[in-house]
Structures are given as structure tokens and as C-alpha cells.
């Protein structure tokens, strides 16, 4: 009887202990999975598309940036000059095309007609031969030149004799000699002119005059007809080429400036002003700290208990008294071994599935690489 009472007391005590441990306060213990991991963010390396020397960097590490905010710029003096040149080429090509499309102006036609009339008049004079008054004028000019030559010839002979007797100086004699020789040249020129006038125009002169008339007629026809279609098309093509060159130069000018592709914080600066950078060289690295997530791993046996959208409680060593709420946003469909940075070999050979836990970070307290512990709540709908 005593043994039975003792056994009953032991069973009753065990039952009371179970109640205190498992249902303390009348609450059922939470059903959860504990995981650990590190925070990550979306990072963007901001770089230039063209090579150049960095003129300015507008942001520094730790600064907040907005999408589209300027981050840095390259020296652009040479490209600005190229853009100005290309714009001038476009303006010139536009003016040329406009002039061709408008056709010939009335004053251009009038000029071509006047040139043709002058060419025809010159040809008519050549065909008519020398006029009588021209011959008489040439004869008179020759007579005057001969008389002038005879006068200087006599004067030269007289001065020569005086010079030989040392009556006059060499300088005085040379002056008379120069005048005599000029009179000889003028008389010869007048004689040649008289011969040409008496002979009339030569055949080659007439042929040349005819060619001038033909050229003037062709020029007038072209001016009246206006530019040909192929000429206008060629001018239009030159304009398009100039516009393409301008667009390319303006694009390169735009590439001298880079902006942040996202709203976030500058995580690192990689280039200082004055440095020469190649295309693709990171200038700064920007991270989206407002949308941070925890990378963690779920053991294969627990995978079936985890689903997207489940609430997660997150704690960090940095802020031990603070709890962050997040949600599972990604569950990998491919198994992998536990990452190599896990300390024990036993843990590293386990098959796990990667999960992402989105955690709101409005105060920017959570940083990339920060370790954290999380509890995935399984008993909540």
C-alpha cells in the first residue's frame, strides 16, 4: 500500500513538472526554425563608358544618393570642341541643301546671261577682223615710237662721244643709255602691235573665243535648269552624315558624366579626381540599404516547412535589444552544400537550400556583411 502511494506521488509530480515546462502561462511554445546568416544588399558599381581623366567626384563614402544623382565627371574640353565643330558642319550642310532645293536665284541667271553676251561680243569682234580705226591708231603709235627712238639714238651718240672724252660722268651716260634702250623696246612693241592689227585675229584666238561661248551657254542652261536630283540627294546624304557625327559626339559628351543607378548609400569610392580611368573602371560602389536582405540556409529536412512570405524575427549582435521583422522572399530550388565559411566539417557537408529574408531598414542600421540570427515562424498563417 505504501509502495503504491509513493508511485502515485511520483507520477503526479512528473505531470506537474511537464505542465510547468511545456505550457507555462497556458501558452503553447512557438513552432519555429532558427537560422543564421549575413546581410546583403543590391550593389551597383558606377563606371564610365569611355576612357578619360576624372575631373570631379561629387560623392564620398557613406553619403546618401538618389537615382539619377550625378556621381562623377570626366574632363570634357576636347569633346566640347568636337561637338561645336560637328554643329557647325550640320549648319553648313543644312544651308547647302536649302540652297539647292530652292533652285537658282534670279540674279544668278542674270549673271550667266550677261557672261554669255560678253563672250559672244568678243567672238564677233574677232570674226570681224581689225577695224580701220584700229589700224590707223596702231600706225600712229608706231610712228611716234620711231620718232622717239631716233631722238634718243642721236642723243645717245652725242653723249657717248662726250663720255669717251671724259666730259660727262659715267652716271650721266648710263642715264641716257637706259632711256635709249627703253625707246628701242617701245618702238619694237609698237611695230609688233601694228603687225598684229594688220593681220587680224589668229585662228587659235577665234577657237578659244568659241570655246568660251560654249562654256557660257552651258553655264546658263545649268543655272536655268537648277540643281540636278542626284546633286540634291548627295547634299541630303552629307547632311545626314553630319547629323550622325553630331549625335555621336553628343553621346560621347553625355558619357563624360555618370549618375547613381539607384537610391542608396555610397559603400566605397574607388577613384580620385585626376586619375585616368578605362571604360568600366568602378568609380564608386552604391548599395541599396533600404532594401536589405539576410542570406541564410535551410537544412533539407526543414525545406517543406518553409514557404514564401513567412514572417521572420531577426536579431543582431550590434543591436542586441532590438528585433527586426522580415519575410521570406526567395527559396532556392537547387540544393547546395553548406558554405565553406561554416566552422565545423560536419556542418559543411550538409545539403541546404538558400533563402532570402527581406528586412525593412528605414534607419539604415543594418549594413552589408553584418551577421544576424533569425527565427522563421512556422505556426502563423
Comma- or semicolon-separated keywords:
elongated; 381 residues; alpha+beta; Elongation Factor Tu (Ef-tu), domain 3; 6-stranded antiparallel β-barrel; 4-stranded antiparallel beta sheet; OB fold (Dihydrolipoamide Acetyltransferase, E2P)
What does this structure look like?
The protein has 8 helices and 15 strands. α2 runs antiparallel to α7, α3 runs antiparallel to α6 and α4 packs antiparallel against α5. Among the domains are: 106 residues, Elongation Factor Tu (Ef-tu), domain 3, CATH 2.40.30; 63 residues, RNA polymerase II/Efflux pump adaptor protein, barrel-sandwich hybrid domain (OB fold (Dihydrolipoamide Acetyltransferase, E2P), Beta Barrel), CATH 2.40.50.100; 47 residues. The protein is α+β, with helices and mostly antiparallel strands.
Provide the structure class.
Answer: alpha+beta
Topology as a string of helices (H) and strands (E)? HEEEEEHHHHHHEEEEEEEEHEE
Determine the N-to-C terminus distance: 52 Å
- Could you tell me the CATH topology label of the domain at 27-42 and 288-377: Elongation Factor Tu (Ef-tu), domain 3
- Mean pLDDT metric: 82
Sketch the major β-sheet: 6 strands, antiparallel, barrel
Question: In what range is the share of β-strand residues?
Answer: 15-25%
**Helical element count?**
8
Count of distinct strands: 15
The helical percent reads: 40-55%
CATH architecture of the domain at 27-42 and 288-377: Beta Barrel
Radius of gyration: 53 Å
Oligomeric assembly: single chain
CATH class of the domain at 27-42 and 288-377: Mainly Beta
Across the major sheet, the strand order is: 1-10-14-12-11-15
Task: Note the overall shape.
Answer: elongated
Task: Please mark out the parts with pLDDT under 50 across 5 or more consecutive residues, or reply none.
Answer: 1-29
Amino acid at each position: 500500500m505504501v509502495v503504491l502511494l509513493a508511485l502515485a506521488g511520483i507520477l503526479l509530480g512528473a505531470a506537474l513538472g511537464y505542465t510547468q515546462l511545456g505550457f507555462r502561462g497556458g501558452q503553447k511554445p512557438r513552432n519555429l526554425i532558427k537560422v543564421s546568416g549575413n546581410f546583403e544588399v543590391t550593389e551597383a558599381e558606377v563606371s564610365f563608358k569611355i576612357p578619360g581623366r576624372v575631373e570631379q567626384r561629387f560623392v564620398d563614402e557613406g553619403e546618401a544618393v538618389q537615382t539619377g544623382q550625378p556621381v562623377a565627371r570626366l574632363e570634357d574640353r576636347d569633346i566640347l570642341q568636337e561637338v561645336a565643330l560637328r554643329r557647325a558642319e550640320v549648319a553648313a550642310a543644312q544651308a547647302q541643301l536649302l540652297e539647292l532645293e530652292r533652285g537658282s536665284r534670279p540674279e544668278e541667271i542674270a549673271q550667266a546671261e550677261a557672261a554669255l553676251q560678253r563672250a559672244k561680243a568678243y567672238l564677233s569682234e574677232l570674226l570681224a577682223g581689225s577695224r580701220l580705226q584700229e589700224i590707223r591708231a596702231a600706225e600712229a603709235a608706231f610712228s611716234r615710237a620711231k620718232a622717239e627712238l631716233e631722238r634718243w639714238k642721236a642723243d645717245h651718240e652725242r653723249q657717248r662721244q662726250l663720255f669717251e672724252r671724259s666730259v660727262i660722268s659715267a652716271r650721266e651716260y648710263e642715264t641716257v643709255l637706259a632711256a635709249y634702250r627703253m625707246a628701242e623696246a617701245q618702238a619694237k612693241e609698237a611695230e609688233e602691235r601694228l603687225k598684229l592689227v594688220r593681220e587680224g585675229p589668229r585662228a587659235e584666238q577665234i577657237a578659244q573665243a568659241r570655246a568660251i561661248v560654249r562654256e557660257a551657254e552651258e553655264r546658263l542652261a545649268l543655272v536655268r535648269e537648277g540643281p540636278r536630283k542626284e546633286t540634291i540627294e548627295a547634299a541630303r546624304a552629307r547632311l545626314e552624315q553630319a547629323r550622325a557625327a553630331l549625335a555621336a559626339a553628343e553621346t560621347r559628351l553625355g558619357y563624360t558624366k555618370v549618375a547613381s543607378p539607384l537610391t542608396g548609400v555610397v559603400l566605397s569610392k574607388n577613384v580620385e579626381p585626376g586619375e585616368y580611368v578605362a571604360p568600366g573602371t568602378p568609380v564608386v560602389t552604391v548599395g541599396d540599404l533600404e532594401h536589405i536582405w539576410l542570406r541564410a540556409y535551410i537544412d533539407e529536412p526543414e525545406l517543406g516547412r518553409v514557404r514564401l512570405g513567412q514572417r521572420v524575427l531577426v536579431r543582431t549582435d550590434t543591436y542586441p535589444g532590438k528585433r527586426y521583422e522580415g519575410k521570406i522572399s526567395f527559396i532556392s530550388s537547387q540544393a547546395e552544400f553548406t558554405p565553406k565559411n561554416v566552422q565545423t566539417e560536419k556542418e559543411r557537408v550538409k545539403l541546404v537550400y538558400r533563402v532570402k529574408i527581406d528586412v525593412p531598414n528605414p534607419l539604415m542600421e543594418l549594413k552589408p556583411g553584418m551577421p544576424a540570427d533569425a527565427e522563421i515562424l512556422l505556426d502563423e498563417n
